Amino acid sequence: MIRLKDYSTRSPEGISKDDIKKEFKEICDKISDLQYKMMAEKKHSLLVIFQGMDSSGKDGATKNVFGECGPAGVNVYSFKKPTEEEFAHDFLWRAHKIVPAKGMIHIFNRSHYEDILIQRVHGWIDEERVNRRINSINAFEELLEYDNHTTILKFYLHLSKDRQKEKLQERIDLPRKHFKHNPNDWKERELWDKYMECYEDAINRCNAIPWIIAPVDQRWYRNYFIAKKVLETLEKLDPKFPEMEKE
Fold first, then answer.
1. pTM of the model
2. What CATH number does the domain containing 233 carry?
3. Residue 29 half-sphere exposure, CB side, CA atoms within 13 Å?
4. Half-sphere exposure of residue 153, counting CA atoms within 13 Å on the CB side?
5. Structure confidence by residue, pLDDT tens digits, 188-198
6. Does residue 214 belong to any structural domain of this protein?
């Protein structure tokens, strides 16, 4: 049973920020090399899911961890309010049509989990539908892993409530971040406890593919933590350049 309060939102004590940043650069270079091999091999694919509260760093993690990768092999999708077309389909339709093909890395900035998080927090769906959707999500993710050789990494970006307040205030105080400011983010913050309850339930019950709890109060450690998990995953896949076919 995962309880978020038992997990720190900060880096372990005693580690060197300078050393971590140096190692992070080396990790990103290795990720780029393995991503290129995976794209050439076309045997496996990787789906990275970032879920977290507003200002937990989903955009920043994407930019920093995958910034060295070849753009032809990486696609990023941001899950916003469903369109009319998406509302006309089942809730997994918009996710299923953009999962990665073999050789690709796809990143979901938010994801199909929004349909059992924000909708549940606001009471837009009842608990019977929540339970059915949880079962569907587990089946969907198992399908991708076992039928299409898609490895899934699900990161919950674990942000403290105090740190979120600081980051949201920056969007008001710093002109270069004004474009990120959304008054609704402050309203959603008032529902923090309910969000934590729903996140914990999703993490514990949507566990056909286990979640990774990433501490994100410090951006430099967030980037390193996520990059290290991505590298470990790609190394296990061990992609190789295919040999040239004989004429």
1. 0.96
2. 3.40.50.300
3. 6
4. 23
5. 999 999 999 99
6. yes
